[in-house]
Design goal:
0% strand; 59 residues; mainly alpha; single chain; 92% helix
């Protein structure tokens, strides 16, 4: 009977679910940051290449 009560307490406990939710949110935010940084890096690289091409074309 004691093991049944322990098992029921385990299934009613929701504190672990909160930790998992926070980890999932942190993961999604991390993916968004990495994606945004990659896009910014690509745009910055393109801008510098355009500036360099302008200097190379100058007399």
């Amino acid at each position: 009977m004691k093991s049944l009560n322990t098992l029921l307490k385990f299934f009613k406990d929701r504190s672990g679910a909160t930790v998992i939710e926070y980890c999932l949110i942190a993961g999604v935010i991390s993916i968004a940051i990495v994606g945004g940084a990659s896009a910014i890096g690509t745009n910055t690289n393109s801008s510098f290449n355009a500036v360099q091409a302008g200097f190379d074309a100058a007399p």
